[in-house]
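re: that chain from earlier
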Amino acid sequence: MHRSVLPAVFALVGAYACADVSHRGASPEIVASESCREFFSIRASPGYPAAAMNDHISGYSIATYSLDGSGKAHDIRIVESEPWGVFDAAATSALERSSFKIGATANECRYVADFAAVKRSAP
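^ sequence. v structure.
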């Protein structure tokens, strides 16, 4: 790397490190792709994994699941996530802790667990 470029790179890195950075993990289109929302009775919130929080990692997991009328999600499968594997357990756990309307049946419902890290500047 040329010496004349290094000061500019360091300036950008320093500006980013001190900036207030906030963004969503999933795009609005991904969040909007969720289905079967109307069947939730109690929607459990996914817990933010501590390691991802400490490292300011944002992302999402998409799970499919089925409803058989019992009020619980069945056949939960992670079908997409970014970064892969980081938020999958939290998404699965939230679906397992959620309750659905008794009698509601559906197949291939989509659940989106969206995680956004916020990096704050140092005081």
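The chain is about 25% helix and 35% strand.
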